[in-house]
Amino acid sequence: MLVNFLLLFFTALIAGSLAYFIPSWQERYFKLILVFAGSYLFAITVLHILPELFVGTEDATKMGLYILLGFLLQQVLELFSSGVEHGHIHHHGHHHGIESGVWTLMIGLFLHAFLEGTLLSHDGMLVAHDHGAHEGHHHHHHGSNNLMFGIMLHKGPEAFALVAVLMSALKKRWVFVLLVIFALASPLGMMLSSALFDQELIGRGALNVFYGMVAGGFLHISTTIFFESSPDHKFHLNKVFISILAFALAISFEFLS
Known about the structure:
transmembrane, 8 helices, ZIP family metal transporter, membrane
C-alpha cells in the first residue's frame, strides 16, 4: 500500500509541476493525452471495475443505483471543479472573489480524488465474496495493477490542468501548496478507507457503495472527455487511433498479464 501511496502522490505532483515549466504547451497534444487517458479509464471501468462490482454483490439493482448516483455526484462536483478532472482548462483571471472560486475548485477536485483512492484500499477489495476466491484473487492481482495504472493516467492530466488553472489566479508558492494537497487526496482516500475497514468501522457493503459511485464518476469523466475532444462532432482519425491504442493496452493488461 505504501508503494501505491507514493505512486499516486508523485504522479500528481510531477505532472502538476510540469505546468510550471511548460508555459507554452500545445493544447492539441494535451487533448490527445486526455483522449488516451479517458479511453483507458473507460476501458478499465467496463472491463474490470463493473464486472467485479456486479459479481461481488448480492443485489445487482442496488449496485446499478450506486453507479448511477456516482454519475450524478460527478456532475455536482463539476459545479465546483469546473471540469478540471477531465482536463478542462479555464482561466479564472485576477478579479474580486477569486479566493472563493479557488476553494470551490479545490473542494470539488479533492472530494473526487479522495473517493477515487478508495478503489485501491487493501489493493482493491472488489473481489467476489465467496465464489472462486483463489482464482478471483489471482485475476484481481493483475487487474488491480491495471486499475492503478489507469488512475495514474487520469491523475496526470488532472493535476496538470489544475496547476494551469491556478497559475492564472495565484502566486506560484500557493499553487504548489494546493497541488500538494490535491496530490494527497487519493492516497488519503485509499489509506482512510482501508483503516476504517480494518477497524470494522465500515463493512464491505459500505465500500461497495463507494466503489459503485467511483465507477459512475469514471463513466461520467471518460465519456465527457470523448464528447469534448470532438465538439464539432467530426471524425478525427488521430483521436480514434489513440482510443483504440488505449483500449488495446487496457485489454492486454487485463487479460494477458
